[in-house]
């Protein structure tokens, strides 16, 4: 059975995810000296309240916010070079939403976001989305110019070196997940994973790609190769919160 969330992700996110990602980004974005401040983000003195629809929405909201943080300098430069910023119709308090949605827009190769009938609309997201689409050609051109200038094949080139090294180390670590024993037993999880083509092995030293092991010290924890991370998160076991990423 196809889940609505998976379909939405291929075409963008629900409005609520953009709003929550913007609130997260507002609290973590890199503050710059006044003389170097090109994009203004308004006041973030108050901690924003966030209402997540479910655990999946929480995860993708944080992922989107931290992706925007990684490329904050590049995204700000694109906004400036395309003349999409400053924009007097959008207040500083929505600059975080502007940056977050711009990251997602370029990540979708500047393709229009599909809106689903059951999705609850948020006025600010609709406003910023329409504004970005007005500048879509100029935004894509600004990104292309930036990549040509730096001879960059992809935007990964613009990740700060310290973050790039951290990601390299993190990507090599095995993936650990908790079994939600209130919803499913270890035996049923193993049976489900084996039906999906994974093989249980004794330890991480026996890992191949489609393998997993039970943690030797915590029997409600499973360990997977790092290469399986994305595939795992698309399993029904995660969507139903029977497995939880550590």
UniProtKB/TrEMBL annotation:
A Pfam short name: NSUN5_fdxn-like
One BP annotation, GO: methylation
UniProt entry keywords in alphabetical sequence: Methyltransferase, Transferase
GO molecular function: methyltransferase activity
Domain NOL1/NOP2/NSUN 5/7 ferredoxin-like: start-end pairs: 176-246
InterPro entries per the UniProt record, alphabetical: NSUN5_7_fdxn-like, NSUN7
Domain of life: Eukaryota
PANTHER family: METHYLTRANSFERASE NSUN7-RELATED
Protein's UniProt name: NSUN7 methyltransferase
Organism this protein belongs to: Oreocharis arfaki (tit berrypecker)
Organism phylogeny: Eukaryota, Metazoa, Chordata, Craniata, Vertebrata
Gene: Nsun7
